[in-house]
Amino acid sequence: MSYQRLVSQALDDEHRANLDLLGRVEQAFAHAPFRDGVLDPALVGMVRGLGQHLRHDIGRHFDFEERELFPLLEAAGEGDIAALLKEEHDAIRVVGTEVLPLLDRVDAATLDRAGFDALKRGVLELVERQLAHIQKETMALLPMLDDVLDEAMDRTLAMAYASS
Q1: Of 22, 44, 83, 135, whose CB neighbour count within 10 A is largest?
Q2: Rounded Cα gap, residues 126 and 113, in angstroms
């Protein structure tokens, strides 16, 4: 989809990259063997990418939306969608907080069978929550931003986001 505003386009680009990562992660974990305490090396590499996504990308993206965009939506009378998206951010952060220590155990090669099972459940829940969240943002938030932001505000916010 094409958006009028730089902020909407930047967020959409990130959503698309995240959808790609989440799709690969979901497929990898759906077929991930755990034999004799050893994970497939391709899965280990993917886990590192997911850890980076959780540690940096989600925080940066969510913090920007909550700090800069949701107040604008509230001021424009769209506080309900801002509140819903914030609740989803919080839920995704909780799952991420549960998954990160397990991802670290994969990287340290200390993950046992029970840990792998917990990691798989957590990762698949994270994927499900993020997919639904991205869909809501694509259908509601991004088009609203095209209406709420003027050109100057859009440029200012896009530059701030790019430098964060």
Answers
A1: 22
A2: 20
